[in-house]
Amino acid sequence: MAEPKEHDFLDDIDAVEADVFADEMEEIDDEAIELDQLRAERDQLKDRFMRALAEAENARKRSEKDRREAENYGGSKLARDMLPVYDNMKRALEAATDEQREVSGPLLEGVDLTMRELLNVFKKHGIEVIAPDVGDKFDPQQHQAMFEAPVPGTKSGHIIQVAAEGFMLHDRLLRPAQVGVSSMPAS
Prior knowledge:
Elements: H1 6-73, H2 76-95, H3 98-103, H4 105-124, E1 127-130, E2 143-149, E3 159-164, E4 166-169, E5 172-175, E6 177-182
Parallel strand pairs: 2-6
Antiparallel strand pairs: 1-4, 3-6, 4-5
């Protein structure tokens, strides 16, 4: 039998080391792949978490805005329904003659007090009267033109008559002031 040569023995050691090294590299590659998969899954979960967190914050802000709007404007339907009451009381007070005031003074005083209390309640809830004067410039954001007429001595686009006052609820128009507008041509 022939004796093994030293280089054959070294070749066997190199082969064994190469196999061990290949196994270790395969393990490292498997671990690296698994680690990459775990990182990708972590990043995906982090992204989903951040999106859910942002959506929750947006929902909180929307609900807070809705709550504020409901608080400020929730009574707008009731407020609109109360405007004819204001109009009728105002007309009643304006229509009373001096003779009627003498005869029914306490009654008219009660109506006047009720009118003031109604205005106080309006103010308490953010309802402001829009009361334009004759001669003011027509503002389509707050006024509704009921008619136009060429009235001498007036400027075109200016108010010549106020038919009904308007009302604002905070920053929203409840009812525009109903006015007549001059259509006097420029001379």
